[in-house]
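Extended Data, panel c. Modelled sequence:
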Amino acid sequence: MEDVMSRPAADELDELASLWPRVSRIISPLYHPSDYERALSLLDGVIDRTGGDEMHPLAPLADFLGLLIEDYENSHVPEPAGDPISALRCLMQEHHIDAGDLRDVAPGADIEEILDRHQPLTVDQIAALSRRFHVSPAVFIPA
């Protein structure tokens, strides 16, 4: 019967064991709000560094951080209830961002118009906000 732990796997584990103390100071499970905030900040930095380039060497790190953050949010952060604009304001506050930080969703002036309830969210904006904040698009759809 073949050994379950082949030689390459053992070598990989040895390498991980030597690297993990340094890596775990940067990336680790999210147990506390401070861990969550640190992961959000790191993800923002990775996104800034990669510029959305899926071939960038740090792109898999963005995916991994996204999974950690999503898992934490599913367990610890209730989806905002209420109207879509209140939900958007709540998420912006929670993530420490302003209208200018949502340029990937719409120009800052448009976001201000939406926040002031002078302009409704479009389907594309709802989809982008849902991806950005890792929440259901239903959060941004009026009841």
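The CA atoms of residues 6 and 12 lie 10 Å apart. This feature is highlighted in the accompanying rendering.
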